[in-house]
Amino acid sequence: MGKYIEDGLTAYRMKAKSEKISVPRPHRIKPLNLERGIEWLLKLSAAIAILAIVLITVFIFARGIPLIFKTGLIDFIFNLKWSPSHGSYGIATMLVGSLVITLSSLIWAVPLGILSAIFMAEVAPSRIGNLLGRLVELLAGIPSVVFGFFGLIVIVPFIRSHLGGNGMSVLAGAIILGIMILPTIISISRDSILTVPKEYKEGSLALGATHIQSISGVILPAARSGIITAVVLGMGRAIGETMAVVMVTGNSTIIPGSILSPVRTMTSNIVLEMGYAAGDHQAALFATGAVLFIFIVILNLVVSFSIKAGKNYAN
Amino acid sequence: MKYLKLKSENIKVFYKDFQALYDVNMDIQEKRVTALIGPSGCGKSTFLRTINRLNELIEGTRTEGQIYLDEEPIYEKDRDVVGLRRKVGMVFQKPSVFPMSIYENVAYGPRIHGIKDRNRLSEIVERSLKAANLWNEISDRLNSPAARLSGGQQQRLVIARVLAVEPEVILMDEPASALDPISTSRLEDLIGELKKNYTIVIVTHNMQQAARISDYTGFFLNGHLVEFSRTDELFVNPRDKRTEDYITGRFG
């Protein structure tokens, strides 16, 4: 395109020259200082943000890795005994704790969240869907300590008196965490369902599919990558959540035998002991953080690969 | 043998307070192509979508009047809409292939209507793709994503998907508006073949297209069906001044 314009201009100038018409000089675009300044500011902001993350990561690993070498990676991860006063640093119970708490909250919050999102995006009249959407987003803004407090005052005593144990348990953690990740799952799933082109739905209905068949056969598959993202972000929040979990799970360093037994997660471990840990003990907490970090990175990789694999079929 | 496939009687459509169609009466013959023309927003697509009751998806839409399919009223309280839409297939403006493989796109319809047998499904898929003149181009990659096909191929795939549920009527809403001239002419050839077995109602912006492919043409303006007659009559001897102005390109 630009070439034709240039050719045209040249031709025009040549014609003008031969016919002695004055031609306006082409404008030179002056490099604006403001433009450069803004570009520089953007670069600087990005650099600072990335640097902060890199520094923290490097710091965590630098403080944690030596201890892992000292105890041995296998021992650190698979040893069931966490006893800093005896120099025994095994995080197996916490690793299992984090997994159990996360999975048991996902098990009920994911189906419930996706079904709610379908209701809000597809079934409810749009006015009600929007209203619910806003309420859910409000729920996402409640600080985790408030959820933890609610769990401690309402859910823990309820479990204690109706199901047994002392109430501080996997179950209490799963309930509270599930409630906390619901808003993430609902609002992102809902957004991804709402962005499915309406042609898909109409195309399916026009073939004689029922509303529900269209949802399960076309709309959900088309919204798949968004829904997976919703689940992953929910999972990320569940693994990383600390405050509410510390408050309701009892924090014993044991492998939980049932949903009523207490449990300690990796994040809880760090927050519970960081106040007084020193030396190897403190390094072991950093090492816990490093394991948590790798854990989440692997999770994200798995998910982004599975989304890519599914994208092939999308438009 | 002429047979009246569809008959619309005083169809009115309202979107909330806005009236989109005023008393449309039209007789649509079996195994003929009926074209609906008119400027944007004249109600031709709205009318098309009354035939498979797809307007009902939009909140706040109300339809009055009656349409008869094989003399059966379709606006009836307990009318089975799913059954209606099986008989009346639809092809949209934007090729709406589903985000799945070519095979799955065509098998989708028969599957939701309860066909599970793999051999029968494959048979239906092959027959439908052949009928849509697509089989030769893609028979070796049925399992690749439908989204990778060209626009013209996607539109023929959508037609194959419609044919797979064995409809009697096919509605087409500006099916060629997103296609290049070659794909368009292939699509028009296909429509010519399909009318041997199906009743086709097509909305088009393109008057030459309407003239080329249709047997009957209806001209819509501001929600009114201004004129409806045989295509050759309407284009050669329009009865209404407004029709004449439109087809001679004075507005629209």
Could you characterize what this model shows?
The complex is a heterodimer of chains A (315) and B (252). Chain A is mainly α and 315 residues long. Chain A is 76% helix and 1% strand. Chain A has 13 helices and two strands. Chain A has a two-stranded antiparallel ribbon with strand order 1-2. In chain A, 37% of the residues are buried. The mean pLDDT of chain A is 89. Chain B is built from ten helices and ten strands. Chain B is globular and about 55 Å long. In chain B, helix 3 (102-112) packs across helix 4 (118-131), helix 3 packs parallel to helix 6 (151-163) and helix 6 packs parallel to helix 7 (181-194). By secondary structure, chain B is an alpha/beta fold. Helices cover 36% and strands 27% of the residues of chain B. The chains are: A mainly alpha (315), B alpha/beta (252). Chain A binds chain B through residues 125-126, 197, 199-210, 213, 217-218, 221-222, 312-315, and chain B through 52, 54, 57, 59, 82-86, 89-90, 92, 94, 96-101, 108-109, 111-113, 145-147, 158, 161-162, 165.
Quick structural overview:
The complex is a heterodimer of chains A (315) and B (252). Chain A is an all-alpha fold and 315 residues long. Chain A has helices spanning 2-19, 33-71, 73-78, 92-123, 126-140, 144-162, 170-194, 198-206, 211-222, 224-240, 243-248, 266-273, 279-311, and strands at 82-83, 88-89.
